[in-house]
Design goal:
Layout lengths: L8 E5 L4 H12 L3 E6 L2 H14 L5 E5 L8 H12 L11 E5 L1
Parallel strand pairs: 1-2, 2-3
Antiparallel strand pairs: 1-4
The structure holds NADP nicotinamide-adenine-dinucleotide phosphate.
Length: 101
């Protein structure tokens, strides 16, 4: 399916499993570059690898983030913006898409 999202950028929280993982892989399959936020970095890296396997030119980075530690949020977002570029809109927290641009 082509949803016209190729080369856009998505920030996905809770990316290690469940809905966040599914969102990441679905967006990755559309050619959306991914910043995957989570606590379980090994699991997030597997999601990133799977997304890249499905879409070879995809950029997918893993950023450590525990939402129980609010001080981690700003540096994590800054790291993702530096790596992938800016984003302009936001939606859910905890697990799911937090931004796409
Ligand atoms: N599944 C449904 O049908 C459904 C329906 C409506 C709403 N929801 C809501 O949608 C959310 C996700 O559902 P899910 O089924 O995908 O849940 P899940 O499989 O339990 O996944 C939760 C995700 O959130 C991450 N997470 C939890 N606490 C975190 C924290 N402090 N910092 C960073 N990441 C954290 C987990 O990361 P770790 O791997 O590090 O634990 C995991 O990636 C939940 O809030 C759920 O209540 C789910």
């Amino acid at each position: 399916m082509d949803l016209g999202l190729k080369d856009r950028i998505a920030f996905v929280t809770g990316a290690s499993r469940g809905i966040g993982r599914a969102i990441a892989l679905a967006l990755g399959a559309e050619g959306v570059h991914l910043a995957l936020f989570g606590r379980d970095l090994a699991a997030c890296r597997k999601v990133a690898a799977e997304a890249r396997r499905r879409h070879r030119r995809l950029r997918a980075i893993v950023v450590p983030l525990d939402f129980a530690q609010p001080s981690q949020v700003r540096p994590a977002v800054r790291e993702a913006v530096t790596a992938l570029g800016a984003w302009t809109s936001s939606s859910t927290a905890r697990a799911g898409l937090i931004a796409a641009a």
